[in-house]
Amino acid sequence: PNTSFVVVKLNFNKFVQINISDGSIKWDYQAPNPPLTINYQGDMIFANGVIYSGLPGGKLIAIEAETGSMIWEVNVASPKGLTEIERANDVTSQPVIDGSIIYSVSSKGKITSFDRRTSQKIWDRTLSSFVGLNLYGNNLIVVHESGSIYSLNNEVGKSNWRNADLQY
What we know:
about 170 residues
């Protein structure tokens, strides 16, 4: 990777690659924004020359780090509801990478597993989180929006256990 540049995610989901020596911009990419979003920018993750980041509207994006070109964009969870407030469903946490697989969770909707190369969905299940997930061995640990903690089998998304002691 080119270490003379850094990629920054700005407000409104604008990605910019900046030369760390002189501050010049090599490329920028503006992801689309729905009318109403949660005012929080999820963290990016970098692997194998690709930047991955969650977006408003329940989306996950892959951007080629060298050129700023979008490789793919997928729905982690589709927004639902009649009003814009009900439809606000953002990916506010950093995705998790495990080899050729990437996991992402939306604030109101689903946790989803994708193939990083093809963007094909492997599995999904209803589970919402604002703070995200972590991978420990074959277990995805997810803090649900209510505060319950889930352990999921990373290959199929099935619950191993749930702890509701910290709920609400």
